[in-house]
Amino acid sequence: MPDLDFKVVGVGAATRGLTPLLHFKLEVVTSSPEPIQAVLLNAQIQIQPPQRSYTPGEKEKLVELFGTPERWGQTLRNRLWTHANVTVGNFTHQTEAVLAVPCSYDLNLAAAKYFYALDGGDIPLLFLFSGSIFYMTAEGRLQIERVSWNKECAHRLPVPVWKDLMEHHYPNSEWLYLQRETFDQLWAYKRRNGLATWEQTMEHLLSAVAAAPEGAPLTQEVPA
Fold it and tell me: Which residues constitute the domain of residue 18?
């Protein structure tokens, strides 16, 4: 019965992806003599926040996720990032495959908030594998086995790889989430003031707030 081991040996951005995509290079090894016909491999990828240190600036940005640093002994736990899958072709002893992982820049997602908060260093990741192994017996019969539940490996994703990927797809931009009612009010303000872009709209609002007397209460409607 085949016994597979997995190791992430590298990572890079998909150079021609239409959406942000990371390619993790995966090494697959078997010590069993049976030829492997194919592997349908699933990976659950977790972030391991306790496996790195943080600067004061990073700690401040991570309060929303983990609370204040004095509570991190209880709150700093592994977080699910995403799931990914890949089909590995036939091989005998060792092969490599590319595990493609889509990335989101939506800062409402915990993983994106965590990545964005980091100034440098690495992101500790844990890959948990499952799936099906198709192999040929010595008698020439095709058999199917499950990937062992305890198959896993760790890898450290360099923070610049993720940040460069986001900068490539969203140059000099950040995501901002608004509830629909708030967005409708902002859109009405934009139209009312004849503003061409959302950047101009936000600058117009910020200028109005800055011009207001110090200590004056902010109202829902900023004068046009």
Answer: 4-169
pTM metric for this prediction:
0.83
pLDDT tens for the chain, 224 residues long, are 789 999 999 999 997 878 999 999 999 999 888 899 999 999 999 999 999 999 999 999 999 999 999 999 999 999 999 999 999 999 999 999 999 999 999 888 999 999 999 999 999 999 999 999 999 888 888 999 999 989 999 999 999 999 999 999 998 887 777 888 988 999 898 889 898 888 899 899 888 888 877 665 545 444 44
In a domain, 224, yes or no: no
Q: Are 127 and 43 in contact (CB under 8 A)?
A: yes
Q: Is residue 139 part of a domain?
A: yes
Q: How far is CA 136 from CA 5, 27, 93, 111, 223, in A?
A: 18, 21, 14, 40, 75
Judgement on whether residues 100 and 192 belong to the same structural domain of the protein: no
The residue assigned the tokens 């509570």 is 71
User: Does one domain contain both 156 and 70?
Assistant: yes
State whether 22 and 126 are in the same domain: yes
Torsion over CA of 46, 59, 104 and 75, rounded to 10 degrees? Answer: 40
Q: Same structural domain for residues 10 and 31?
A: yes
If one counts the domains in the chain, the total is 2
- Residues 140 and 195 both lie in one domain: no
d(CA 9, CA 95): 12
Cα 134 to Cα 90: distance, rounded to the nearest angstrom: 9
My answer on whether 187 and 143 are in the same domain is no
Chain-centroid distance, C-alpha 127: 13
